[in-house]
Amino acid sequence: MKKIIVTLSICAVAFIIASCTPSNEEKAEKLIKETLKDYLYHPDSYEPTATRIDSMFIDASTIEPIMEISNEIKDLISKINGCERKIEFAETAMDIYAPDGYSSQFSRGEYARAKKEKKETKSDLDKYSKKLSEELASLKENVAKYHKGGFTGWAVIHRFKSLNGAGTMNVPGEMIFFCDENFTTCVGYESEKIDDFAKILDTVNEATSDEDIIDYFEENRFSF
Questions:
Q1: How far is 143 from 65, CA to CA, in rounded Å?
Q2: Which residue range(s) make up the domain with 87?
Q3: Are residues 88 and 190 in the same domain?
Q4: In terms of C-beta density within 10 A (0-12 exposed, 13-18 middle, 19 or more buried), how is residue 4 classed?
Q5: Stated pTM of the model
Q6: Beta-bridge mates of residue 138
Q7: Are 210 and 153 in the same domain?
Q8: Do 55 and 79 have their domain in common?
């Protein structure tokens, strides 16, 4: 009889300990609440509405570099396109003011100016093109690191409500947080931003050449 009582007592203690241990959802929401203090306009109005946790098998530290590199690539593509247009305009001007035996001083000056602009812009174009190649290589390298393979922590889809900037109405929000396995640190992004991020991952993974990646950024230069 004593043995049974002791066994039951151990079970009861184990149940009490388990009941007192915070769930992963509780740990995540506590960490997220602290994290959002510096993000929300009115942190005191924060109210969680839904939390979903999934195991994570990625290197979340690559997310920010991939986003920064992607923005740099878009900027470089814009600069390269601008250079190509300037070179085209300069070449047109050179054709118009091409010197001959009847060229005026004005025409010769315009030709020289256009020729100089083409040369300087070509130098910029070469510089930006080289930098673009480097950034594309860095992007592919970080995307490869992103796919870690082993368990690295938790991905948390979190929905909440909070007051808008004017403090006049509650607005819904949804963010995705990437937390370490012990829920001691996390980084969060708006869901729309992660959607764009996922498209970049798909583009890099499916690309057969750098041109495929460049085409994606040219077509989506106003997103992300």
A1: 10
A2: 63-136
A3: no
A4: exposed
A5: 0.82
A6: none
A7: yes
A8: no
